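CORE FACILITY INTAKE
Project code: CF-77B
Contact: R.S. (postdoc)
Sample description: multi-component assembly, two entities in total
Requested service: structural model of the whole complex
Turnaround: standard
Below are the sequence entries exactly as provided by the requester. Do not edit them.
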Amino acid sequence: MKAFLYVAWKDLLMEFRTKQMLNSMVIFSLLVIVIFNYSFSNILFNIEMSDIAPGILWISFTFAGMLGLSRSFASEKEDGCLDALRLCPIDPSSIYLGKVISNLVIMFIIELIIVPLFIVLFNFTDIQGLLGLSVIILLGTIGFILVGTLFSALTVSMRTREILLPVILFPIIIPLIMSAVMATQNVLSTGELSAASAEVRMLIVYDVVFFIASQLVFEYVIED
Amino acid sequence: MIKIISTLISPTAGTVLIEGHDVKESPLEVRQLIGIISHETYLYQDLTARENLKFFGKMYGMPKDKLESRIHELTDQVGLKYRLDDRVGTFSRGMKQRLSIARAILHDPKILFLDEPYTGLDQHAAATFDRILSELDVSDKTQVMVSHDIERGLNLADRIIILYEGKIVYQAARSEIKDIEQFRETYEYYVHEV
């Protein structure tokens, strides 16, 4: 088994044991969905909920994801564990890849809980687009976690990391979130993934570019 | 210094060779040869002692059967065999330090770095740490300790180096130093008057 799988296994074992991130991420994203749903449906009567629902869905994903990402490397700083990882005779990119995998698994669990609630609350009766929606969520989440994990490592040694992480991460993920929101909108309104082909291409390119770039720079990002 | 020779920080000048491997050019080979005991435990609080050792053993590429027997052997030696399946977070400071010794020598490194290992330990825990280190079969390993505890350092060492502002200002074999008072004077001289 490769070193990155050991890192992912270790992270997931710790997370499923303590549920520190999972609990807060689930509760937070549920609250975002519910509050946005009731706020907009009461105040903005003349706006179609289906128009704003994709944005709300991705806001809940990214906000909840931010909670998890800020803890991803911070937990490694306790008791010098990040140094211990760096002292292992493995390629530094294995640490990054392991963290990406564990963060992705946690995000997918959150999304599996959130999406059904989102469909019910926003009254999406047509479930033909569910496969397309899954593809978009998969690609969008991968891109978000690839960049988020890198920036989580970048800010881990800073005293204000919890504040700094969203400030530097959100501008970088704007193209990703915009494409994901538009793709979600198109798929939910037409039921066809082909209706969002341009956005899907953008998501794939974003994922590939940041996967390669992150692998190349990660070693320098975690250097003292 | 330990951070540079253990590959955690790249040297900006000069060369460090460990068993012929340059720490800058071949960090992976160097990491396989070294083990570190620090004032930080390098252990995950939410994993059990066994899970911690298993994780680091796998990261060092140890085969499964050898890893299992090594975990049992080392935890027996550091007196933690009965707590193997307890979370490290429930351990006392001294127990964590003992487990961190087992973690550091798990992959049988040739060189052992001890980076301020007594920081945060009370007298009893520090004595236990010394006892375990002397009982463990680490005589075949080169040991490099960084410490501000002059007396303890002098008692343990074969060779003494005084570092000041990143430079070696004094070095001598232990046999060349008469007693602690002489060494304390030497230390004061170099550290304050250079």
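Facility notes:
- The longest helix of chain B spans residues 64-77.
- The first strand of chain B starts at residue 17 and ends at 18.
Invoice: internal transfer
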